[in-house]
User: Which sequence fits this backbone?
């Protein structure tokens, strides 16, 4: 248990030093290491540095200055490579896209909305579904938009035709809407999420 | 020195952004039907946390009690605070600012300083236009308005953002500084309090300009360093840098919660206190801090406070070690005759937990065991939501609702969950409450 704690602490310190190096482009001084690690005594920092040198985390040049060791490698280290069958999994996964990345293109401008009506049911959007709405995009013809028409909110296809803008439902039971006075578009629907279980 | 406040170039360009009636604006952004209406947040507290500009125009002020609000503005829409949504908006606002400059200081939930020095070249436009674009992007993507001041220093930028609100944009260039300081009372300057302004009044200094025009000898002789710095900043010489690291250190951590109806049930009130303590400790542990002092306070129905400060023999962030102190403080402050409405704790004297000195007779193995217990609790919270495991002393605060009656309304975000969300864990995106 104690060794666990110690090991974690050492790992955290190595990470701090590595972050410092990648951030500032230089190695920290002894007093900066002390500050990051919460060690006041110079001697204790010296001991820590010796330990890290043994672990090849950092090295010292001939004048005693710190130079980065293993923390400097900007080349991505693959998993241990064994002779025989290659295991492509790790290399393949390094570029994996999360569902978040896939669904949320502009994270600052994307909002959730719970659907309550049937007007877009033929487009596969049903009551209870969650749609993602991007407020940052400029709406184009054919986009599904959330819009306020003459004081009423609705979700429809946007159609910018020659004789003005029309909002078209996907469900034939609903009628297309032509804004009489005012049309405000709150955002463009970029995805629909339906969770079954 | 007839007109000393004249600097013709922009050695620095500091921008201060202040969101307009932030909490109320967030509510209007996710509830579009509230746009243009007087909106007030803070229903669960019984007092105004934030009021929209429509409500302010009707005479609603911050911290006003809600029954008074109903008198001056009967059609006000009063909603419970939805801090989760406000935090999401805040984070997004700062991210939008970072599209323009990496030097963004998150000054508070709704305020930021941005250093935009030198960006005219990369954006091929003036500082004023950069600020305008920021304002427009925030409004387009978040649906809230912000007021911006741009000037040579933080103090001047802050004067700018206050100059015109809401949705204001004020550029105070070096040659115009005196115009903005001329009518500004000295106590309206950022960092100058009532005492200092009264002191300056003794020398006949009433406006910011009169202060800025004093010579350095006067300032050095009569004022301490912080005010000398403000004096430099007013003169367009930047002293305060924009600090862009995210907040990682705290002077103190406080947690306080109101409950309704008010109670005199000793066990329930202590449970409230205990929950606040657990909360404060969770935050302290998150920032790897430990507290050397604990302040316990109780607030009665008629807003009288009683508080006790307890010193600890060793800094800690583990509630188990703090209960003794909490109990003592509570027993000292609690009077059975009183009706209480709020409890709170403050952890102060914070030190990094790596620096704790153990006392000679501390049982180290026991302390390590405790560390393991709380590390596990924190892991469980991360996985299953906060309060998955909590102290039995807090139980009474869990079985009884925090607010009964109308104040018990929870934000719509919490009341209407998506499949897969639970009471504590929600998707990290704000929800538009529009019926379509």
Assistant:
């Amino acid at each position: 248990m104690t060794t666990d704690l110690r090991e974690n602490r050492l790992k955290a310190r190595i990470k701090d030093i590595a972050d410092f190096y990648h951030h500032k482009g230089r190695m920290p001084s002894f007093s900066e290491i002390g500050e990051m690690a919460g060690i006041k005594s110079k001697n204790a920092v010296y001991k820590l540095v010796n330990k890290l040198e043994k672990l090849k985390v950092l090295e010292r040049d001939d004048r005693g200055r710190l130079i980065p060791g293993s923390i400097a490698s900007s080349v991505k280290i693959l998993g241990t490579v064994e002779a025989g069958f290659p295991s492509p999994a790790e290399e393949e996964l390094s570029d994996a896209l999360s569902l978040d990345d896939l669904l949320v293109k502009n994270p600052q401008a994307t909002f959730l909305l719970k659907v309550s009506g049937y007007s877009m049911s033929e487009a596969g959007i049903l009551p209870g579904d969650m749609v993602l709405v991007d407020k940052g995009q400029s709406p184009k013809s054919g986009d599904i938009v959330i819009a306020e028409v003459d004081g009423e909110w609705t979700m429809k296809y946007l159609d910018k035709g020659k004789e003005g803008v029309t909002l078209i439902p996907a469900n034939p039971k609903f009628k297309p809407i032509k804004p009489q006075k005012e049309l405000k578009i709150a955002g463009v629907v970029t995805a629909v999420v339906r969770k079954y279980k | 020195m007839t007109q000393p406040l004249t600097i013709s170039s922009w050695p620095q360009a500091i921008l201060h952004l202040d969101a307009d009636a932030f909490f109320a604006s967030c509510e209007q952004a996710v509830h579009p039907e509230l746009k243009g209406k007087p909106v007030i947040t803070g229903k669960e507290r019984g007092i105004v946390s934030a009021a929209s500009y429509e409500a302010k125009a009707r005479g609603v002020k911050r911290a006003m009690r809600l029954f008074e609000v109903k008198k001056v503005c009967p059609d006000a829409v009063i909603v419970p605070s939805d801090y989760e949504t406000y935090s999401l908006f805040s984070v997004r606002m700062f991210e939008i600012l970072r599209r323009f400059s990496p030097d963004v200081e998150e000054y508070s939930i709704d305020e930021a300083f941005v250093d935009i020095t030198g960006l005219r070249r990369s954006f091929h436009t003036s500082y004023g236009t950069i600020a305008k674009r920021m304002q427009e992007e925030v409004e387009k993507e978040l649906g809230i308005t912000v007021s911006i001041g741009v000037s040579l220093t933080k103090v001047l930028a802050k004067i700018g953002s206050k100059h015109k609100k809401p949705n204001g944009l004020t550029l105070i260039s070096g040659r115009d500084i005196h115009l903005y300081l001329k009518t500004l009372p000295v106590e309206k300057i950022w960092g100058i309090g009532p005492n200092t302004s009264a002191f300056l009044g003794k020398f006949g200094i009433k406006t910011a300009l009169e202060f800025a025009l004093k010579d350095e000898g006067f300032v050095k002789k009569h004022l301490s360093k912080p005010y000398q710095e403000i004096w430099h900043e007013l003169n367009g010489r930047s002293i305060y840098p924009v600090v862009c690291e995210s907040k990682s250190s705290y002077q103190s951590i406080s947690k306080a919660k109101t409950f309704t109806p008010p109670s005199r049930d000793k066990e329930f009130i202590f449970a409230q206190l205990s929950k606040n303590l657990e909360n404060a400790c969770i935050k302290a542990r998150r920032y790897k801090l430990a507290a050397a002092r604990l302040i316990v306070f109780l607030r009665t129905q008629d807003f009288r406070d009683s508080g006790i400060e307890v010193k600890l023999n060793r800094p800690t962030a583990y509630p188990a070690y703090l209960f003794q102190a909490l109990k003592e403080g509570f027993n000292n402050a609690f009077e059975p005759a009183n009706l209480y409405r709020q409890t709170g704790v403050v952890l102060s004297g914070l030190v990094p937990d790596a620096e704790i000195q153990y006392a000679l007779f501390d049982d180290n193995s026991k302390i390590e065991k405790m560390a393991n217990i709380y590390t596990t609790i924190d892991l469980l919270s991360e996985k299953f939501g906060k309060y998955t495991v909590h102290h039995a002393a807090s139980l009474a605060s869990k079985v009884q609702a925090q607010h009964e009656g109308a104040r018990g309304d929870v934000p719509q975000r919490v009341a209407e969950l998506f499949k897969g969300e639970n009471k504590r864990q929600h998707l990290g995106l704000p929800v538009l409450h529009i019926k379509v």
